[in-house]
Amino acid sequence: MLDDFASEDAPRADRRPKKKRGWGRRFLIIVAALVALAVAAAGGFVVFLDRKVAGNITHENLLPTTQPTGPDGKPVPTNAGQNYLIVGSDARPGETASRSDVIVIAHVPEDKSAVQLIHFPRDLYITIPGRGKDKINAAYAYGGAPLLVDTLQTLLGIKIDHVAKTDFEGFKNMTDAVGGVRVYAEEASDEGFFQVREGWNDLNGTEALAFVRERKTLSEGDISRGRRQQAFIKALMLKTLSREVITNPITLTKFIDAATSNLTVDNALDVGTMRSEAISLRNLRSGDVVFITAPFTGFGTSPGGASIDIVDEPGMKALGDALRNDKMDDYADVSVTP
């Protein structure tokens, strides 16, 4: 009763704060409920995406079963950071996917501050374990992804942690899913149904497919095409990690569906690992993604008469050391492709 009497006789100025505090508590409860609901919805969306990815991707034995050894034949020490091998095939409908037209190692440092994409030209003339000297592209034809991994590990003296392979059709679908990408072209080309201009180009999926396939009209053939592929991968990666994609459930779902429908990964690369790695890279900016061409000294001809790219042996050793020791920033400062 005393409380009732006090509240009745209290000045209006004294009573309002009490009323305001009561509404504040109720407001906070409502906000908390909405936040909880949003978290639950987000959690449900994550579960939905995880199930979609798990249902789409294919797992295969893409890694060799033997311990990696370097050029000196000694076991490779543990890497700092993570190395992902990305293999892309340009097999057309009706063809068997026996060619690896895209060979890229994506290095993610331990601090997740950058991504370095190293393109290996398919005509790079190297030693393939058990096969002798040949183009690096032949390793995939001889023994699939495991032999290509073994070849790169031996060449560089590193461990490749995971492998992902797709085809160029997957590139096309991913591009359309995010509404197109803006890609920088070092040189112009005529693709027939559209023109690539030197500088920035906004490409849809069909145009992006033509962009990454072109090599005959480019100044350095497959080398130039490799740089185009790196530029495209960078553009697609940045678009995918952008706020407009990450925060749009419909766009994100379309992209993940397109990205995983033609995707095969090694057995150790599970959905949780892929999701956590993507989240860890969400703050990357354009300047944090660097693309590099594996070092070579020029062009030549193999004993069999094939056109080849000649390896820069000291440069390849420096690249391997940088990858193994997580020093790619230092390497990129002097070796990055302009």
Automatic annotation (TrEMBL):
Organism, as annotated: Knoellia subterranea KCTC 19937
Protein name: Transcriptional regulator
Keyword list, A-Z: Membrane, Transmembrane, Transmembrane helix
Domain of life: Bacteria
Keyword Transmembrane helix attached: yes
PANTHER family in the cross-refs: POLYISOPRENYL-TEICHOIC ACID--PEPTIDOGLYCAN TEICHOIC ACID TRANSFERASE TAGU
InterPro entries named in the record: LytR/CpsA/Psr_CW_biosynth, LytR_CpsA_psr
TM segment ranges: 27-49
Family note: Belongs to the LytR/CpsA/Psr (LCP) family.
Residue ranges occupied by any Cell envelope-related transcriptional attenuator domain in the UniProt entry: 99-240
